[in-house]
Specification:
The protein is of the alpha+beta class and about 260 residues long. Helices cover about 35% and strands about 20% of the residues. The chain has a single domain, classed as 3-Layer(aba) Sandwich (Aminopeptidase). A hairpin with a 2-residue loop joins strand 8 and strand 9. The protein contains eight helices and nine strands. Bound molecules: coenzyme A.
């Protein structure tokens, strides 16, 4: 599969973004990316979501093209929305996972903010652009009216999945969102049925489903957490040992996630 290293291999390249993964090394650190790291964060999101059903439908059959087009879109979005909390998981200097959580109203772009998306959208190509707009309109139709923390995007590099990293990223971002905006529930959309169970285990419940670009999508919410138990992620690094599968700091996150 182009651009995505299998576990045990060393490198992959998508578009202009080169990255190396070292599956034998152990530590992953979670922190907000610096502005200079937002490009690598967008590239990780483009690559790691390239096989999502909506991305195949919107961007076409070629995986490298899908990753490149979504990376363009993500460059205009991630780290640029009002109040957005972005966390990236770093292995050495590589971004291996990322999440964004954006409180309302920042998750609904204002006209000027939509303009800022135009270059990235235009680079997805006219056919893809039309499909991305239909997709976004369909998601908007499900968007809850009351204030909330909007989850997304969230992705982990394929070689790093199944180690708890995705859950850790999400819970840390939600904890920070809850600390900044006490009492807000969380909301998300997903186009993969496998993710519904993943989110359920993290305290989300299914509130709706429906087709988007002819594909099944699921819409989920999570009741508010206890912000007083939130962790100060800027003061801590997350360390995941891939050998022992222990996760430093996980107990604190778990106790918060039990509040939903
Ligand atoms: C969803 C995702 C972020 C989870 O990241 P992760 O680090 O593997 O998550 P965790 O290790 O905390 O949890 C693993 C769970 O994720 C789900 N999952 C979905 N796709 C998976 C995959 N390819 N490999 C492993 N787990 C996957 C499983 O339900 C798994 O549950 P299990 O523990 O019962 O096996 C990751 O699979 C991913 O990046 N997927 C592609 C992009 C995507 O769909 N993002 C979410 C958009 S709403």
């Amino acid at each position: 599969m182009t651009g995505v290293p299998e576990r045990g291999t060393t490198s992959g390249e998508v578009g202009q973004h080169s990255r190396t993964v070292h599956p034998s090394a152990t530590d992953v650190r979670i922190r907000p990316p610096d502005p200079a790291e937002l490009g690598a964060t967008a590239a990780l999101l483009g690559l790691a979501m390239a096989d999502n059903p909506l991305h195949v439908a919107a961007y076409g059959d070629d995986e490298t093209t899908r990753a490149r087009r979504h990376t363009h879109l993500m460059r205009g979005v991630v780290g640029r929305r009002r109040g957005e909390i972005v966390l990236a998981a770093f292995h050495d200097f590589d971004v291996v996972g990322a999440v964004a959580v954006t409180p309302t109203p920042g998750c609904r772009p204002r006209p000027l903010e939509v303009l800022r998306l135009v270059p990235g959208l235009a680079r997805t190509g006219p056919g893809s652009l039309a499909r991305v707009l239909v997709w976004q309109r369909a998601w908007s139709a499900h968007h809850p009216g009351p204030p909330h923390l909007h989850v997304g995007p969230l992705a982990v590099h394929p070689a790093w999945r199944g180690r708890g990293l995705g859950g850790e990223l999400l819970l840390r971002a939600l904890a920070e969102g809850s600390r900044r905006h006490p009492g807000l529930p969380a909301y998300l959309e997903t186009d993969r049925e496998a993710n519904v169970g993943f989110y359920r285990r993290l305290g989300f419940v299914l509130v709706d489903d429906g087709p988007v670009l002819g594909l099944p999508n699921w819409f989920m919410e999570r009741a508010t957490g206890d912000h007083s138990a939130a962790q100060d992620f800027t003061a801590q690094d997350f360390t995941a040992s891939k050998d022992s599968e222990t996760v430093a700091g996980r107990e604190g996150v778990r106790s918060w996630s039990g509040c939903s």
